[in-house]
Amino acid sequence: MSAKPGIPRNALIWLLVAQVLVILPHLTHLPLWITGLWLGCAAWRIQIFRMRLRYPNSWAKAALMIGAGFGVYFSRGSLVGLEAGVVLLIAAFILKLVEMRTARDALVLIFLGFFAVVTSYLFEDGLLAGLYSLLPVTALLAALIGLQQGARMTQPWPTLRLAGSLLLQAVPLMILLFLFFPRLAPLWTLPQPGPRGLTGLADHMAPGDIARLGQSAELAFRVSFEGEIPPRDQLYWRAVTFEQFDGRRWSQSFAAQVPQEPHWQATGQPLRYSIVMQPSGQPWLFALDVPRMAADDAQLMADFHLQRRQPVNQPLLYRVTSWPEARREAERAPSSLGRALQLPAQGNPRSHAWAGELRRTLQEPEAVVQALLRHFKREPYHYTLKPPAVGADIVDDFLFSTRSGFCAHYAGAMTFVLRAAGIPARVVAGYQGGEVNPAGNYLSVRQLDAHAWVEYWTAERGWVSVDPTFQVAPERVEQGLEQALAGQEGFLEDSPMSLLRYRDIGWLNQLRLRWDELNYGWQRWVLDYQSELQLQLLQRWFGKVDATALGIGLVSALAAVLGLLALWLLKPWRRERDVQQRLFLAFERTLARHGLRREPGEGARTFAVRAACRLPAQAEAIHAFLRSYEQQRYAAADAAPTELRQALRALRRQLPWRRARR
């Protein structure tokens, strides 16, 4: 059997507790075999401590490492990437437990644990996740303290209290660093976890795509307006424009993705607001028409949607000014008119024929648009999350057979008919409305608010937005999806635990809104406290100064504060006053270089006598130093240390340069 391990019992207990707390928030995106790996390694570690099992040998460690690598590859499909990297990190964090022999190994394990805590924010960064992360951090601190306490401390609770008190003492410094340390851009970036970008609008649209989003309560973004929140029926949040139709689905055109700002004229009162957007994995930003941003990393594209250079892979705060009544490309025909008339050469013959009849009868584009809207309103069309299946001619089947669909069905069909009638038109996808939180006076827009509507172009008015869904289900635009689907099954059926399903319970709904407000504040003022917000806050306190000068000044001030704090804690002047003790430590180091180390608890005289026996040629010099030390230390504390220094020099002159080999 192996010798008793060098990790104290108290430290081992808190290491095991810390591992559970660190791994727990990762379980939703870790493969199941990780749980089995931890249970096996924890049991092995306990048996090692009880001296019933040996440490793994080199072959066993190699087998465990290779097995973990294969497990990551087969469960994640790769060893490269953020998700695979997190699984590898957790596996290493677990495997290190059975290999741990010394306090140094335990320190490596603890530092791995701190890093694993940080990686959990890549998957969940809400307020609850932030509060929970304090638990594994405290447990890791307790394990770190247990390593220093040694085997004499057997009760875990005093160690936990000390770890908690240290954490509380660090809070003021943490706040100072958070507020004043400059926000620097990362030197490199990694792709964010895939699951965070799976829910949301895509760069194409088939008839059932947005209907599936209508069953999700996931948050898309939150909006705070300067002033009153506009009426719900004016809140059309553009995300992306679809101009290409292949007979089955709508998609973006390549030309619309070219950064070229279109012509438009600001009219009416502007709306100013800020948005905190959730990760979408897409480069476009949500905004009301027509938006303008001061940020350099976003631009208004040719089809009037906002787009960044990089996809949104983390929560993003941005400010927008919009002119909902702006005239868009009314002065001259835009270059996109050809794309806005494109249709497949074959398919949907009944819709083509109907469009031709409308244009011949009504002549004017506006009259055709109004005729289509009246048709949707008067005929027995139904708004539903579960539309019946359609055949190859999806527009014909919807308009003349099923007459049941979601917003994408109505927007796609109307755009098709307008194009067939020679009127430029396109589908706009985004979100409509949002839930007002009266406590914080902001809007929460969720995936279930995903919507599609139509834009058509005339020479007199430019691009004009219309919503055919409003004709069929006006309550969808004026009140929301839940009211539009009253009496139907399917609302939030993919989110059975969502509190949105229980909004009719007053106290529960109030609790939900309050919690949402707390999360919004956490995200807006903590997670999104980046360089822009930091500069605004500091300039509010210190006035309008140059950002670089302010940053240098703050870093210098912070360094000075940390230096003063280090002086106060370490008190080097006190160590300088205790000259005898400092010289005795030098005496210890001198003898240690020759194989003589002072044992824990060994007195100065006992150590010197043992050293004199081991080094008889230098015995007289050792005893001379001991006599001088004892006289100055215990008999005449105020005596000058010159004699003690001379005794140490004499000993060093008598000792050889190198330790003699045995």
TrEMBL record:
The protein, known as: DUF3488 domain-containing protein
Segments forming domain Transglutaminase-like: 399-470
Transmembrane segments: 7-24, 80-98, 105-123, 129-147, 159-181, 549-570
Pfam families reported for this sequence: DUF4129, TgpA_N, Transglut_core
The organism's place on the tree of life at top rank: Bacteria
Keyword annotations from UniProtKB, A to Z: Membrane, Transmembrane, Transmembrane helix
Residue ranges the record marks as coiled coil: none
